[in-house]
Specification:
This protein is of the alpha+beta class and about 230 residues long. It has two domains: about 150 residues, no CATH class; about 40 residues. It contains five helices and nine strands, in the order αββββαβββββααα. The strands form four sheets. Strands 1-4-7 form a three-stranded antiparallel β-sheet.
Length: about 230
């Protein structure tokens, strides 16, 4: 059975459906919807490189394969991929430009991992059976997408926390091993300003004990400020 797409449903979703999706899916950190309803023949991507006609530069390609059906696009935060990885896998060396544009600093929308249509073939003819956009479709798919998104976030958060804890444990063990296995600094001699100061005071007292005149006697006779005339 093939669904019939009403004429009013093509191209842009009805306002009531958009509000329904936003009410369930919410908004991201930039105030944009977490999920968008898009018609497969509307959305395009700007890409760079060599086109089918051999021309270098910017090109627009259909984001959803130009399929006449509804799609749900999901917002992904920018931290899912680093700028270095983005440019490493998208750079077009012939055009000397990123193949699919600049790094998405505000995140990007990607198609949901399912289709709202069925593709069938009869000989050389392909038929697209598209589902209509209804409230029950939104109630069925959007909550599951939101749950998957939250699960992915908590998994990533848990992995980061575990990695930080492991790094702290490793640093603590390393510091403990260094402390236990370390010897005295400077081959056992004094290694701090305070202990050096005490060591030098002791040496001065030993030298003064062997002198015929002490420092105090010199100060008493000559004073603290004097000069020698040669």
């Amino acid at each position: 059975m093939s669904w019939t797409i009403p004429g009013a449903e093509k191209r842009f979703p009805a306002r009531e459906y958009v509000e329904h999706v936003n009410r369930i899916g919410g908004f991201n950190r930039y105030g944009e919807p977490n999920f968008r309803l898009v018609w497969g023949q509307n959305e395009v991507d700007l890409v760079y490189g060599v086109g089918p006609d051999g021309r270098k530069g910017q090109h627009f390609i259909p984001k959803h394969g130009n399929i006449p059906a509804w799609f749900i696009d999901c917002w992904k935060p920018p931290e899912i991929i680093s700028p270095e990885v983005w440019y490493a896998i998208t750079w077009d060396w012939e055009a000397d430009a990123p193949g699919i544009g600049k790094y998405p600093e505000r995140g990007m929308y990607v198609p949901a991992p399912f289709n709202l249509f069925v593709r069938s073939f009869n000989g050389d003819r392909m038929t697209i059976d598209a589902m209509p956009l209804t409230h029950w479709v939104i109630d069925l798919f959007v909550p599951n997408l939101l749950k998957e998104q939250e699960s992915t976030y908590f998994q990533r958060k848990t992995a980061i926390e575990q990695r930080i804890a492991a790094e702290r444990d490793r640093a603590a063990r390393q510091a403990y091993d260094v402390y236990i296995n370390a010897g005295l600094a400077f081959a056992g001699r004094a290694g701090t300003h305070e202990s050096n100061h005490e060591r030098w005071e002791q040496r001065i007292r030993e030298k003064q004990a062997g002198m015929r005149i002490s420092r105090d006697e010199i100060v008493r006779r000559k004073g603290l400020g004097h000069r020698v005339v040669l």
